[in-house]
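<instruction>
Derive C-alpha cells from the sequence

<record> Sequence and C-alpha cells follow
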Amino acid sequence: MELLHSSCNFETLTLISPPLQSCKFGSNSLLFFSPRRVTLFSGYNHSGRVAVSASSQHGDSNSSSSSSSQTNHASLAQESIAGFLRLEIGISEVDSDFISSNCPKYTRMIVDGVRDLEEWNSWKGSKESEGIEGLGFKEKVIYMVKQKGDGGKVAFLESLGLSLSSAMYLAHYVSSESLPILLHKVKYLKEIFFSGSDENGLVGKYARRMMLYLSIPIDEDVQQTLSFFEKIEARRGGLDMLGSVDASFRFLIESFPRLLLLSEENDMKPMVEFLESIGIPKGCSGKVLLLYPPIMLSKTDEIKRRVAAALEKVQISVVNKDSGKLLQKYPWILSPSIQENYSHIVSFFNSESVLKMDIDHGIRRWPLLLGCSASNMEMMVKEFDKLGVRDKRMGKVIPKMPQLLLCKPQDFLKVVCFLEDLGFQKEIVGQILCRCPEIFGCSIDNTLQNKLRFLTRFGVSSTHFPRIIKKYPEFLTYDADKTLLPRLKYLMETGISERELAFMIRKFSPLLGYSMDKVLRPKLEFLLNSMEKPVREVIEYPRYFSYSLEKRIKPRFWVLKGRNIECTLQEMLGKNDEEFAADFLGLGELRTHHETS
C-alpha cells in the first residue's frame, strides 16, 4: 500500500492499494481485485483527543462517470465480449450476442477491471503497462476477458440465470470443457429435461406430493433432489414452475453440476433410449428426470439393474406397459433407500396378515407408499382395527385406496364421526370402509355434505340417508353436477316427477350409479318401445335397471310374450331361473336359446 497524499497537519491521509495480478483460471485461481482508495479524516472529539474517520472510494476519488458514460461503456463491453466469444472461442453470432447481452454482472466486473487498470497505470508506470497503454477501451475489455482465463464460460453460465459467484464456481468445475462443447451440452440437456408441455404444473404437483409423504431416512441422491426442489419452491411460483426451463434449469445445474460433464453420446442418449424402452413416452422422459435427476448421473447398466429390482418387487414385468407408468408416478422407486423400505413395508403387513399381492397392488396404484415409514402406516392400521377391519379384510381396503395409509389419523376420524353422526354403528362404518374406502379420503364439506344436500334438493329426507348410503355408499364420491344431475334429469325428461324420483332413490339407491347412455337410456327405451309398458313400472320397481338387458330382460320378455303372459317387472325379473321356469313355463329349468345353443 502506498501513500498518495498527506498534509503536514494530518488533516487527510489518502491511501490506495495496488491491484493483485489475476491468475489463469484453474484450481488455484485468484480473482482480479480492483484497487481501493481509503481517505482518513482527522478531527477532535470532546475530550480533545484525535478522532479518525475513513471513507472508501472505488476508482477515481474525484467523481464517478456519468450514467450515460457507464451505459456506453457497458454497451461497448458487450460488443467486445460478443466479438471475443465469436472470434476467439468460435461460437455462433446468435449465441455470442445472447451471452453478452445476458451477463450484466460479468460485464460490469470486466468494465470495472478496465477502469482500475487504467487508473493503476496512470500513477504507477511499469513494464507490464507498456503493452496496453495504447489500447482502446474495447481492446482492453478483451484483454481483461483473456486475463480471467475461463474462456468465456463465466459469461455463458451467468447468461443461463446463475449468479456471478455461482457462475464462477461452476466455470471452475467444468474447466476441462470448452465453451462450444458446454454450449451444445446445455442445449441438449434442456431438450431432454424439458421435453413436452407442462402447462398445468403436473411435474411440480408430483414433486410436492413426493416431498409431503416422505418419512424415511434417505440416501444422498434423494437428499440432493430435495435440495433442488427446495431451491425452486423458495422462488416465485414455487414448484409449479419446476417444468419451466427458464425457471428451473439454473437450479438444476447448480444442484447437479456433474450433468455438464456427461457425454452426450455415451451417457445421455443411452439413458433416454433406455427409459423409452421400458414404456416411458419420449415426451415424458423429461418429467421423470426432473423428478429424480440422479437417474441421468448413473450408468445405464446400473439403472437397468435398479429398474428390474424395483419392478420385480411389485410384480411388474420390465416389458410391461405399467412399468413406465410406475416410474412416471414415482421415479424415486429407483433410489436405494426407497427400495430398502419396501422390505420393511412387506414385513409389517405380513405381521398384520395382509397378503403380499394386496400390498403390491396398493403400491402399483399409489407408489408414494414406498417413501412412507411402516411406523407411520401403523397409526392408520390401528384406526382400521377399531372399525373391525383387520387381517384379510384390510386387503380389500389397501388395493382400492392405498392413499388412506398415508392419511393423518385425525382426518380419517373426521369421516368416521361424520358417518356415526348419521346413525351408523362402528361395525357398519367398517363395512362401508371395506366396500368404498374412497369415501374416507373425501372432504366432508366439499364432497360428502354436498351429496346429501344434492339429495335434499330432489326431496329425499335426511331420515333416509343411512339406508341410501348403506345400500350404495359409492354415490358419495360422484360429482353432483357432472355425474348425478344429468342422470336424474334424463329420468325426469321421461315423465318421472321429482317426488317419484325421490321414492326411487329411497327404494333402490344404486340407481344413482347407472350410466345414462349405457344403462338408463337403452333399458328405458326397451321398456317403453318394445315391452310397451308405462314408465310407472320402473317407478314401482327401479331395480329393473340392475338386470342385464341382453342376458335377462330381453330373453324373459320374449319368452313371456310368446306365451301371451302378462306380469309385472318384479315378477318377470325378481325370480331366479328355476323359479321363473316353474311359475311361468311349468318347467323345472329355464333354458334360453343362448344356453341350449
